[in-house]
Amino acid sequence: MQKATHLFSHRPYWAKRFGSADQLPMSRAEMDDLGWDSCDIILVTGDAYIDHPSFGMALIGRLLEEQGFRVGIISQPDWHDASAFQALGKPNLCFGITAGNMDSMVNRYTSDRRTRSNDAYTPDGQPDKRPDRAVIVYAQRVREAFKGVPVIIGGIEASLRRIAHYDYWSDKVRRSILPDSKADMLIFGNAERAFVEVMHRLAANEPIDQIRDIRGTSFMTQQIPEGWTVKDSSYVDKPGRIDPHIDPYAHEAACDKKENATNNNNEKVVQFIPRVQKGDRSKTVIRLPDFDQVVKDKVLYAHASRVFHLETNPGNARALIQLHGKRYVWLNPPPIPLESDEFDRVYELNYTRKPHTAYNDAKMPAWEMIRHSINIMRGCFGGCTFCSITEHEGRIIQSRSEDSIIREIEAIRDTVPGFTGNISDLGGPTANMYRLKCKSETIESACRRLSCVYPDVCSNLNTDHKPLINLYRRARALPGIKKIFIASGLRYDLAIRSPEYVKELVSHHVGGYLKIAPEHTEQGPLSKMMKPGIGAYDRFKQMFDRYSKQAGKEQYLIPYFISAHPGTSDRDMLELALWLKKNSFRLDQVQAFIPTPLAIASAMYHTEKNPLRKVDHKSEQVLTAKGDKKRRLHKAFLRYHDAENWPMLREALKKMGRTDLIGNGKQHLVPNWQPEGTGNARDARNSKRTSGKGGRVGKKPIRKSVRSQSGATKPSQPGGRQR
What we know:
By secondary structure, the chain is of the alpha/beta class. The chain is about 30% helix and about 15% strand. Helix 9 packs antiparallel against helix 21 (about 600-605), helix 15 runs parallel beside helix 17 and helix 20 packs parallel to helix 22 (about 630-640). The chain is globular. About 50% of the residues are buried.
């Protein structure tokens, strides 16, 4: 893989002489106190400003400050006019704009498109402190406030909307966020390398419309630069009828197989040698179907999604273009991942680890959740089709050094108010991918697999959990540390390959409950999610129970499931409900599938085609739960025990020919009676008339569940069982 310029090798900007601010300023008065007459960069965010590396604006802000720039923050501005965006004056170099740590639409709306009642990234959890499509709105207001100042957009909202994308909330394909926001540049993915280089080049008086060669950046252009070769997306993967060839999603992803190669440790591995491509890949750009085409043709949309995901490995990705009107959206290849020492320095900058003092004593729900947690890695090679992590952070794991993590634990212990000795999490997007990577850099750079663990764990993947075990042991031995919990999602199909890790985890780092996410039990939806079968869960549960017993602890697994995912039938949801009942699970909080921009599952939802395979008009039709009624039904199966759902479930079971599951016995899924004040009154009367002997209305109280902190019901028996 191409080597990148070291993140901290740039000559600091002259304003470095001002030193580091106690907290990045949010007002002119704070700027005056720092001796600043202006800011070099102003970052606008939809979140409250919390000076902690888990919050994107704080991380980028402190990194740019380390590079010598004066950085100001405009947090959750009133977007109804431009005045709030003038609070810090005109920046010398640019505005940087983000919606915050979450896409603004996901942040504001539930899976049913209802407005959420709170916002975890806002003081006291207040809702309505950011607009819909915040990046577009903020960029427009900045343009009104200061004409001619470069505008750079980034963060997860911009990153996931960098090409034409299906938008669940408007139920249509929208343009790239670049032309809608009229931004000069979009920085996608992990922004450190790109943002730092762009700022230094702007500081050297290079116009932003001439900065076109930085990885991880996107911009609008009317023409293809001289010396570039344009190849149609069908060159990568033809839609329509095609001749068979090596499937880039299969185990030998787009490569020829060579046995008995060795890696640096002299271990035998299966090596994949890239097929020779004509032309210079670094000067080749792949043209995706135009915006107008993907709007009209769902097969072309699915094809564009497939090609986009084939070009996401930093080791072999080419530039992409997509025509929007008379201009192209140009995407450079993804950024080169950070090396461990770079990652360490980014997370050990001069953070206060607290909310800005302007918020006084306001509660910050998101900060309360992570204030005593530590991010040890980023990225995910799981490839779950419904998840946005890989589209944003990439599939290559970036890990911090053990020493750096230990220093952060000590910093939390010694400086963070309210610390009681418990670290709430050592994790990241996934709890147990720390330092896991491909056994060969050559293979890694050539691979086009979307997942290293589906349909099975790749033989080239190093699954050694010893570095993580050593980290856990060293961390919990620190003076003043009572307990270290692991709260990030666990990839249990990897964990079962290291019984020593499972024993370490279960014996020392589970606080009574451990969250894992099988997501479903049936192969139909699991194959569209790219998740392992339920057998992997069963094997992990056996290990979990055995090691919990050996440790003398009563501990429980809390499984998470998704309803209404593409590929899920009513019968799939029924089988899942029966599995939950058989295992005595009563889920309190469940997640309905939300089609987020760019995700492969969202392409399935919109097109009803499967981009995991070659796509044409005759290819596999993906069963998709659309419409509020169908989505509510699938969610109701997950909460089969809730009396509010019984009328809907009874109706569905009758249509499915499964009236044998309606009744008052232990073998039944739902009763044939309805408590007063629940469900639909008319349905309850009908149930009373048609239920026959034993039909009752309002005779039996509903047993209330005891909620655990994880949101699932508290089991009363070992192994996750309850009466």
